[in-house]
Design a protein that fits this description.
This protein has 292 residues and is α/β, with parallel strands linked by helices. It contains ten helices and eight strands.
Length: 292
Amino acid sequence: MKTVREAFEAGEFIITGECGPPKGTDIKEMLHHAEGMVGCVHGINVTDNQSSVMRIASLPVCKMLLDLGHDPVFQITGRDRNRLAIQSDLLGAHILGIRNVLCLTGDGVQAGDHKNAKPVFDMESVQILQAVDSLNNGKDMAGNDLKGSTGLFPGAVVTPESNPIEPQLMKFEKKVGAGAKFFQTQAVYDAENFKKFMKYARQFDTKVMAGLVLLTSAGMANYMNKFVPGVTVPQNLIDRMKEAGKEKAIDTGIDIMCEFINETKDSCDGVHIMAIGKEELVPEIVKRAGLA
């Protein structure tokens, strides 16, 4: 398959998966899931201490996925690093052969498992995108010349179901202005609302992928509505998950995801599939959605 950048530039519909590194050194399951996705996705995101829970760092996992044959997407947040560390990690990603970088501000430490950790937030997502642009052009953020520039492909995130939506649209425009070449959205479930967002996004020279989280139960859907900012699972989908029961819940969740893909794929540039805890199902989702 083409790399993420090559596929975007060729106008192909992009498919990416997600890899959440484990909390510990046992990586057998993670690698098993990653091996199963070889050839069915263009790239795999590697999360960076997602939800402020301490895990294996994104960068070494990206290198392992690259060695497996994937085109990894290196997630980097401003929560845990100052601008020295961020630029250093970006240079490190380049020399390891990693080219895609998703620039995030990061969740607050109060959401995670080390509540006494000191949050850094020296830079937020727009500034990290600006740092990538500077490194790509051969200079660090202080204006010093680099001995060899980077060739990173920068991306960012947007939350189309945020209410109110206006702050998200303003931030979206700032991220485009800072050099974001592609966007992955927060989880979306309302196809009509997403298509409305895409009409706005088409004003800008950037690519947008719909972020899709696999529903595994009605309880999960209710939890997301209550605790995940910017995510709204419509009641009719919650009712479908309830009616499915435990035996058919996963199958119904896949149906819901595939229906969303088929309804929206003509309006966006790809999908980012987040099958949290069920990464082995990504190849089946791709096949059932007719994207294989």
